[in-house]
Structures are given as structure tokens and as C-alpha cells.
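User: Last request for today: this protein with zinc ion, please.
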Amino acid sequence: MPTIALDLGGTRIKFGLVENGQLLASANIAVSSESFAAVMPVIETQVAALMEEAGVEKIDGIGMAFPTIVDSDRMKLLYKYVKYNDANDLDLIGWAKSKWNAPLVMENDARAALVGEWQYGAGRGTDNLVMVTIGTGVGSAALMNGRLLKGSHYLAGNLGGHQVIRFDGVRCNCGNVGCLESEASSWALPELIKRQPGYSESPFVPSTRDEKPDFEAVFRLAAEGEPFALSIRNRSLEVWAAGIQNLVFAYDPERVVIGGGVMHSADVILPYIQKKLGEAAWMPPQPAVMVAAQQPDWAGVLGMGYLATQLK
Ligand SMILES: [Zn+2]
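Assistant: Here's the final one, the structure of the complex with zinc ion:
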């Protein structure tokens, strides 16, 4: 039987009616409300529309991914997040039961994406996997011996973006100093560009070539040999390589699936990180293989669809 899966982002919700890794019907809608109670009727309407579209009358389960740390045993959001802070006051398990007569599973969005890639994407065929998503922020998750790594507080593997890369670096938006995310992610990039020596002569100064301070411009200009963009690109690659090496040492995966917006430049990123990893001490003769995500848009939905089939 199919399942319903939701991937709740900062401004949008992706919906899928999923069966065996196939989207029978899907939707991607903008949501402005910050209250989960206010979003519930929107979810009910959208789910009804998808079920009607696919001619499905019953579902096996419902899965929801949230961009925060999630207690996936009690179905609670553990850290306050800018949206849906009222979710823990609501009986969501009872809601799923009364609306769809189905059990509910909630999980962190990076773990959901990892499961999607593991079952239906670049992670197929191995049970030892790390996923890293490099975009606005940096998300991560780990699977060891076929089990999602969760730890004693549901944090395990999830905070790869907030591992400390430079203890004397700049302050991250999480409050810590020198996180991987504050040293190389899309939100941090404009500030990092301004701090880089040579900025005043660079194409990113508004009055010169007026390039947007994003990774698209950095990789494009670096490919043309522009020296300032090259320095920013290479520094970012070093940060990501160091972070991924840390994750490889921590979890010893067979494969690392890398996703996110920067993977438009996968042809530069994957070989660079692979080579750095090969040069590191204590690596086995065949270290973890870097691969690009195969489900960049729907991994979270497919992963939650799979987890919803695992409910008893
Ligand atoms: Zn941080």
C-alpha cells in the first residue's frame, strides 16, 4: 500500500504519495504560516488531492521530515526552530490516526534524504553511508550497518555542518565559532568573500563586475581562471574536504553521498574531495567513495515514504 510523505522546508512543503520508491502523485507548495496548527488543514487538503489524483483510498502510513533535530521514537521536535514550534503541543499521532487511520513517523530532513538515497538513489547496495548536503547550510546524516545513526539525543551524524573546522574562526549562526557551515556554505559566502584578502580588487565588489557572491559565480569565474574566485573556491573545497574527512573517520562509510546546490559543480568537487581523502593518514587502501546525490529534489520525500512503510 502507498504511504504519504512530507518534506517540510523553511518556506515550502513537498508532498508525495509514494509506493516502492515511486511518486504516484506529488506537490510542492509554498507555506507562509509559522504555526503547524495553521498548516494542518493545508496538509489535509493536499493529501486528499494527491490520493484522489492517484485513485488511492487507503495509505499504510504517513511520514514527515523536519529541518531540526527530531525524536523519532516519541515524534517530537527537540530543538526550537523558526517554524512549527507549536508542533509538540499537538497530538500529531492522534491526528494521523483519525484523519487517515495511519501511523505517523517523523524524522530529521537530512536523515530522510539519506534514507531516500540509500533505498532509491546513489546509496543503493551499501549499508554504510554518510550523506552531506551543501547548500544554504550544510546538513548530514549517517547510516551504519543498515541502521540510521541516532545516538542518545537524536543528534548523531546530524550536525556535520556544525562540526568545528576552525576553533578561532568566525561565529556561526548557531552561536558556536568556526563551524564548517560558517566557513563554507551559501549563507556564509557573502561575508567570507568580503573577508578574503584581495576582495577590493575582486569581481564581487558591487562597483566593478558586480558578480553575485554565490557559489555559481565562484565556480564559474574560477573555471575561467579568475584568481580571487579561485582562492575562494579552493578554500571552500578545503573546508568541505576537511569536514568530510572528519565524518569518514567518525563513521567509516563505504560511500559518501554529496547533494545540495553546489553539486552543479560536482565535476570539480567530487574528484577534489576524493583525492584529499586518499592523501589522508589512516585511510584504508580503498577509502570511502564520493558520489553525487541522485535524487536531489525528492530524496527526503522518498526517504519518509520508505520509513512510513517500516512502522508497525
Ligand atoms: Zn554552527
